[in-house]
Amino acid sequence: MSIDASHSAALLSVGHAVPPHRLLQSDAAAAARRIFAHRYAAFERMAPVFETSGIRTRYTVKPIDWYFSALGWPERNAAYLAGAQDLFVEAASRALENAGCEARDVDTIVTISSTGVATPSLEARVAGRMGFRPAVERVPVFGLGCAGGVSGLAVADRLARARPGSTVLMVAIEICTAAFRMDQLTSANMVATALFGDGAAACVVRTGEAGLARIEGAGEHLWPDSLDIMGWKVDPTGLGVIFDRAIPPFAEEHVGAAVDGILARIGVERASVDRFTCHPGGAKVITALEATLRLDQGALDHERAVLEAYGNMSAPTVLFVLDRLVKQGLPRRTVLTALGPGFTCSCLSLAQAA
Question: Do 148 and 255 fall into the same domain?
Fold first, then answer.
């Protein structure tokens, strides 16, 4: 696929941020045992997920004891708002600095988040701290979940190409730990407690420049009758995770064909992909992705490293993987993939400029 630098958008930079509280997985497992073992008959059967998740540390917006207190929706969303604003500023500032830009250079902001409610939206709340122009355009996007990092970058690409020369900042922020629930005695809640952490990542996109790589195209695949695989349910206590079907076997059976279809639609040959960069939803999901994408076992090494150090932060996580690849040096063609509620597979192809 030929790349016309004057009409395609370039990824100029990536930056990420995590909150101040570092949570050891061993401490999370011990806390879960104190909270659930005496109330949840299936706890011993579920407890190994803390060891098999592939996670060593995570980062949280609140210290661990906060999550043991009686929390309702107001307290949880307040934690989301405070933590998300700080992470937005840190991740966005880092991405802008890496791109050689300032906040006043930004023409459009795409904000991706699904773990809390913010009206006014997050980019408006931090506009003064960041120094955005009053004329900046705002595109807040809710509900993409773990697919949000890839889909959000695709939205930024389309907006940049619609106005050549404009600077688009995309920020993905998730405060997943605001949804930790002591009241839900379910296997889905145990998995969520073992997997999720908080974090943010940002990208700067602009047309007419070489940048780190050019965005060749993007696409999604939505499976019918799959709403029960992943999502949120809402009650007065807050958000509760939905994992009603096992994701790793679904991914292994279906994702490879979906990715092949997306690549065909955007004109990228499957054999030309040098590196798949995947959202590391969990250790079993990574193994399933290697199988369905026909990769060697262990090929998704950066994904495992990010999962080990940060856990599953939902939307930003794949951009943490991308940031590691940028620092290492991107190959000629990289395809980002992420799975999210819908149930959806989102893909985006990056290629080095000729």
Answer: no
pLDDT digits 0-9 by tens, 300-341: 999 999 999 999 999 999 999 999 999 999 999 999 999 999
Task: Classify residue 201 by burial, with Cβ atoms within 10 Å: 0-12, 13-18, 19+.
Answer: buried
The verdict on 289 and 333 lying in the same domain is yes
What DSSP string describes 79-125? HHHHHHHHHHHHHHHHHHHHHT--GGG--EEEEE--SS--SS-HHHH
> What are the tens digits of pLDDT across the range 34-57?
888 888 888 888 888 898 889 999
Residue finishing a domain among 189, 207, 225: 207
For the purposes of burial, counting CB atoms within 10 Å of the CB of 66, is it exposed (0-12), middle (13-18) or buried (19 or more)? middle
Beta bridge partners of 112: 141, 172
Please tell me the pTM assigned to this model: 0.93
Token digits of residue 222: 């939505």
In eight-state DSSP terms, residue 236 is T
The residue range of the domain holding 281 is: 213-351
pLDDT digit string, tens, across residues 142-181: 999 999 999 999 999 999 999 999 999 999 999 999 988 8
CB 27 within 8 A of CB 34: no
CATH number at 231 reads: 3.40.47.10
The 8-class DSSP code of residue 207 comes to E
Last residue of a domain, one of 207, 223, 249: 207
Q: Which of these is catalytic: 146, 176, 278, 347?
A: 146
Which residues, 6+ apart, have CB-to-CB distance to 224 below 8 Å? none
Q: Establish whether 345 is a catalytic residue.
A: no
